[in-house]
Amino acid sequence: MKTSDAGYAVILKELQQAAAQLDQGQLTYLAEAVSSAGRVFVAGAGRSGLMMRAFAMRLMHMGIDVYVVGETVTRSLGKGDLLLIGSGSGETKSLVPMAEKAQAIGAVVGALTLAPESTIGRNADFVVKLPGTPKDQAEHEASTVQPMGSLFEQILLIVGDAVILSLMEKQELSGKAMYGNHANLE
Q1: 128: which of 83, 88, 122, 175 is 20 to 30 A away, CA to CA?
Q2: Is residue 13 in some structural domain?
Q3: What own/partner pairs with CB < 8 Å and gap ≥ 24 does 160-166 have?
Q4: In a domain, 119, yes or no
Q5: pTM of the predicted model as reported, rounded to 2 decimal places
Q6: Rounded to an integer, what distance in angstroms lies between the CA atom of residue 114 and that of residue 141?
């Protein structure tokens, strides 16, 4: 079977393989960090940034005080806040200074990356190791036929949604109840 004949099946198989590599302890820690933070700030660049924005939206739907770094309505980060950075390489030039500044301020920094040994990973208080790019293939089992960082970005979105489900269960919150925070000026 050619990839083009059933691309969705290939993608789903890759996602299953990648998900099997996730460390449940790291995901639990991430959920606990979100629930114990004063405020949550998310950052990412490119498509990874879009996945982090999607995560921020779901956190907002839950009633969590959340901000996307770089937006005009984003407040200042402070001690006790949580900065979550999504970066496959962990070396994104615009994100490295954010991690360093957040550390200096006394905020907690979490990195969602495939490179825990990266600059952002080393500057983080905790790392959620995600699989997912062709560069990743030589060292890890999460190989992919998808272009560039697609697998990483997909697993980043899924991890965000899995954390949301965990928080919903902990707070005994239903998806229906979350609609009260959904945008109503659309």
Answers
A1: 175
A2: no
A3: 160/51, 160/52, 160/54, 160/55, 160/58, 161/55, 161/58, 162/27, 163/27, 163/30, 163/31, 163/34, 163/55, 164/55, 164/58, 164/59, 164/62, 166/27, 166/28, 166/31
A4: yes
A5: 0.88
A6: 12
**Tens of pLDDT along 69-89?**
999 999 999 999 999 999 999
- Residue 60 inside a domain? The answer is yes
Domain range for 34 is 22-178
Residue closest to 125 by CA, chosen among 142, 107, 113: 107
Tell which residue, 126, 72, 143, 69, has the closest CA to residue 101: 69
Q: What is the CATH number of the domain that holds 102?
A: 3.40.50.10490
Q: Which of 14, 117, 141, 153 is catalytic?
A: 153
Q: Which residue has the tokens 């779901």?
A: 58
Summarised one tens digit per residue, pLDDT across range 128-165 is: 999 875 454 445 445 676 656 688 899 999 999 999 99
Give the number of domains in the chain. Answer: 1
| 111, 124 Cβ separation under 8 angstroms | yes
What would the pLDDT profile of 51-70 be if each residue is shown by its tens digit?
999 999 999 999 999 999 99
What distance lies between CA 159 and its chain's CA centroid?
A: 7
14 is catalytic: no
User: Domain for residue 4, yes or no?
Assistant: no
